[in-house]
Records
---
Amino acid sequence: MDNKTDIRPFRVDIPQSELDDLRERLTRARWPEQIRGTGWERGVPVDYLKELAAYWADGFDWRAQEKALNEHPQFVTTIDGQDIHFLHVRSPEPDALPLILCHGWPGSFVDFLDMIGPLTDPRAHGGDPADAFHVVIPSLPGFGFSNPVREPGWGNLFRVAAAFGELMSRLGYRRFAVQGSDVGGGVTMLLPMAAPGRVAATHVSGPSPYPFGPPIETDGLSDADRARAERFNTARQDGLGYLHLQSTRPQTLAYSLNDSPIGQLAWIAEKFKEWTDPAAELPEDAVDRDQLLTNVSLYWFTGSGASSAGTIYEGMRAYREMASSQSGDDQTGWPSAPAPPQGIAVFAADMTIRALADPADTVDHWSEFDRGGHFPAMETPGLLVSDLRTFFRVAR
């Protein structure tokens, strides 16, 4: 195979020296004071983070998690000058539908691990073998082992979508389905344009524009939609600090995320508190603590805190350019294309209101759940798997 398009096997193998360095940094942390009587409203509480960091240093077993990661076939290929890391798990069912799963921020390919078995081998997990998928889980450029980012421009999600389309070509998949959330949801929606005629259907979980627009009026809304509107209005007022910083001064933030595991842990743990199921009091009430720390560890070992912030910075610039253009194909380079069937899943912590997001009722499949949040693949993998099985039958 031409070495410009070869697919190289990959194994996670973090040197022991990096594990030792992480533990030393965690145990030598210099902790800030916290004003008496304050809690999560000012950010991650010191007492909570101290306990979580202590577990990361002395209770969390990275080698066990690394072994579990390496049970799944992983690869790297170079596309458009950038190394793209991905999992590729083929189904035992010969007629399985190829499916890309696209993670967001602050997630990674680790998000989807609990879904791989049910998706690829439903027969072994109480499902219908006719619902099987060949699963491909890429790491976004700047995230995980799709590092280092060798040049600017990978915040342009159309470029990422085109790279993922090329990845599927290299794997021999002419036609495929796509699922994503957050940044991965943007890639999902652009793939039909980046790979015209090849995307059988798209599915997005928790779709919602960043809350830059005006507040949503709550009069006349159902109880569920009123709760979503209130979350939107609160996020618009009080929840955008992280995004403003990452989308304007990512390099300044990068020093803290790249040099302090406590800083990296707090930066991600806060989002697992704010964005997961509203019924969950703490992040580990919504997701498995070891899975959360595996994700944080991946950001730490690969320097993804810094590089993903840079990617988001470029992505916000591309978003603004797209919003200011008069059409989808003049300034941004994002051409128009016929849309394949589209599915949307809204989980309990999401802010999407159908009457606003789909006023013309054009979405082919709309599901709403009273559990879960921004990380459904980790929080409620069974619900997401079931929704994907149901919706993607239209693509078979």
---
Amino acid sequence: MAGYELLIKNGTVIFPDRGVAEKKNIAVRNGKTAEITVALPEAESVIDAEGLFVSPGFIDTHLHDEEICDGKTIEQSMLRQGVTTAIAGNCGCGPLAEEILPHRTSPWINLGYLTGHTKLREAAGCIDSYAAATEEQLAKMCRLLERELKNGSFGLSIGLEYLPNTPASELEALFKTAEPFADIWVPIHIRSDGPAAVASTDEVLDYAKNWKLRFQISHTGSMTAFGHLAEVLEHIDAARAEGRDVTFDCYPYDAFCTHLGSAVFDPGFAERWGKGTEALEIGSGPLRGRWLNEDGLYERLRREAPETLIIAHVIHRDEMELCICHPQCAVASDALLFRGHGHPRAAGTFPRALCLLRSRGYTWPDALRKCTSLPAEMAKLPGKGHIEEGYDADFVIFDPGTLKDNATFAHELLPPTGIKWVVIGGRAAGRCLSQATEDNGYMVRLET
């Protein structure tokens, strides 16, 4: 019997944490990297990676699959772009375990969930997005959060822009509940974008000073790239230099996407962004592809179809690139779909980010660090983000010469080119993909 289940041979192995690329062979046993060698040990299955790069699987710490109907679509899109591990339930939307887990019994990738502030409020009877919770409701929220954290939630997610009048006291009650749990992660969508982004970022930095929790400022580029990104980065850098546990992420697009009925699109958005309805594209539903500056469309859809996804082409590209190129900024997709439609970030974020980073002078190991070991460190994911003996055998094998994202705003789920194989050691990569040619339970070939 062969000594290993899988051998990946002849590839250039990327060690992002060390900034190194070496021609090595990787042997896998029991879902773990068992040996990294120049030898060619026997194995039951062999992938010949000649001419290809072998990277740790990409890690997406910020995506959304709260819509029951869209989970597998998002997971497949993640897998096709090389993501092997992801954390969902961000921006306060994380569902309670009892609501989501029965529908996620066979995810295509390693998938974890955050518990969402918004969902806690709803479960406690606070359904007004503009109201603070009552004392009774807050007490119930804290009990629910404690239960979820005891049962394995990855942390607490908060979406302050969606709950704009939430008092600090409400958040701090939840922080007090979470603090006794070791290494609890708290990603926060800040309270306001545009001119108030600096003050909104400082709010999170103050929480990081006062609470022994790990804070993440979500999709920093899409929230602050309106003339304020450089100042925001200065404040984050200063807070980190003081020892505050705060990190941040970004996706490589100059348009964001969220639901039209949310507080994000309350009157006044045009003044914040310097652009109005002429920059707002309908991303889901029967009017997908049209623009909100058509007569009465903004008012009608906001009233009759608030779940409609809107793609807002308002982010300053140069600032977004400044953010994603910051050495401590992780790549994260913020993938969001509604009935199969939405923003191309769900299918193209990681290849697009890598190509952008390379064009800005990043080496391959340093660019890949922002997709692998850096997010693994931020989210405290043991055994992930590195190619080391004993670590999970999660890999993406790609052609650096042809890597390219193909998803567009018109065709948001087109898979990238250049991704050849994805290997997920601890969990099956999926039963089949439309373009798969092989699946033996832990590896999927993505291109013929």
